[in-house]
Amino acid sequence: MIDVKRHGRFVRFFSASILIQGVLSATTLCVGLLLIRRTSDLDYSYYVLVSNAILLLSALQYAYAYPSLVYCITSDTGDAATRGDFVGGLYREQRALLLLLVPILAGATLVGRLFGLAGGEEFVIILLGIAASALALNREFFRMVLLARRGQSTLLRGDIIYAVLLIVGAAIATSVSHPAVWAIVGLALAAVIAGQWLKRTVYRIEPWSVPGRRGLLREIFPVGGWSTVGAASHWAFTQGYNYLVAGVLTVASVASIAATRILIMPINLISLGIGNVMLPTISGWLQRTNARTVLVRQVGIAAGLTVVSAVYMLLVWIFRDWIYAVVLKKDFPNRDHLLLAWFAIGIAMVLRDQLSYLLMARARFRVMSTLTIICATVSLLASFILMHSIGTEGALVGLLAGEAASVLGIIGLCLVEIRRNPEPGAVP
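^ thats the sequence. predicted structure below, dont judge the formating
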């Protein structure tokens, strides 16, 4: 007999989780379109570089701290005092680390300015980016606490506050001079206001000890260290090309790649949305079915998503003139080449995401991190070489080479896994 109350809690939990992802993705898309349509390529490129740096730092913090945070908060052996000591200690050490790093980075930026390595606007943008990153990490810390507590409904409200403020800030920034500067100011303000709301909310739900446990960052290193390496390599793999483009070509060149990438965001959302349920589903399959059958099912799902993605891409290709002229209000001389490259990358990303869940369900994180490091190296090296010969398209060809290597590597690892542990319920 179905427990109606429990079923209702699960429905609300997963609904809120999907809405959170939808709100954040829609916000990214909306802010991107505002800046693409209303600002110069250079201003949009500056914003992309700052936001991607924040994405890296948030991913590193999440990879390092979240697994231990989840274990402490969800452990049956813990109590409110234990949880409060852990959260309080981790928060205190995070703030201490940020208070150390922010002045160091700001000082290094000032030295770069004095030696002429950064112009006046670049200097201001870097300083604002450092401040925005620190504020974003503060917000992300309390997002992690709520995620660990399965407080998705509360987190959704906090993310809506952040989304509204960020969109309003971007809209205002596009109507004044120096839009990149003001867009980053808006990002920082959205992070600090939403972060303070989350902080007060978390403290009201379950207060933490202000001093907390000491030495937590060192204590959780065995758990978070390797995960952080994997997160850094994944970011280098999927976002590092932006900084190569800015360094090898020009900062403004980032705009054409980033703007065109927005057109395949629905493919990423579909793959990510499926991923929210695929990992627990495949984990369940592996308990009842042999690994080879599970892999065949994964291939079928990946093939289905590839067909859906291909249909979407065909529609984008047919209406590309209207999309660039009306939606993006931008036109790039190499737009068709960039669009085709992103289509190929999008298909590779779908295959990589969907085929990797067998390895994730079997907890093969170390070998997956190693593969990601190898693919990131291939991608960045190929992009660096090809950009010198064919320009911005070379960055995407290099990224495609890395994605293709990742897909082939994951297929190989899956075949090894089903050969070593073919039976249902195999212990990771």
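The chain has a mean pLDDT of 87.
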